[in-house]
Amino acid sequence: MGRRKLKIQRLEDMKARQAKYSKRKKGILRKAKELSILCDVEVVLLLSSPSGKRTFFVGQDPNCLYNILQKVSNMPFVEREERRAYTMELYEDQVQELKDKLTKKSKILRDWKNPENVKDLNQIKFMEDHLIASLNGLRNRKNQLAMEQQRRQRYLDVGL
């Protein structure tokens, strides 16, 4: 059984994101170490987990971080800007995709704040269905909590 291709996109579930990060972090740290050893290159890797925990890896040479920072600081300004522009170009598509998502979500939020401005009947129907589903979820949760509270109260009453 082969692996299936994973669509690379942000995971919405925080637990799934943390689990995926943990697995992939081990892999990228192993690859960084291998690259450092096999190719005799200076590798510095700084990761920040979804929970905010930092992971820092420095290759074989303990002075690696200092050496890299020294090289970058001695690099001509023009070359640093070219490298920065190249890096920004790599992320340009992702940034545009995130901007588009933000625009779409902002419009949805505006619609929810001002439903009288919505002109599309399908959008209003969608909003109504969503509200009904949310209300049903709240009712179910309220009933569940009420039942749990009654059970606790009965338990306390019997225990006294």
TrEMBL record:
Signal peptide from the UniProt entry: none
InterPro entries, sorted: MADS-box/MEF2_TF, TF_MADSbox, TF_MADSbox_sf
Keyword field contains DNA-binding: yes
Species of origin: Gossypium barbadense
GO cellular component, one term: nucleus
Major subcellular location class: nucleus
One function term, GO molecular function aspect: protein dimerization activity
The entry's keywords: DNA-binding, Nucleus, Transcription, Transcription regulation
Protein name in the entry: MADS-box domain-containing protein
Intracellular or extracellular location(s): Nucleus
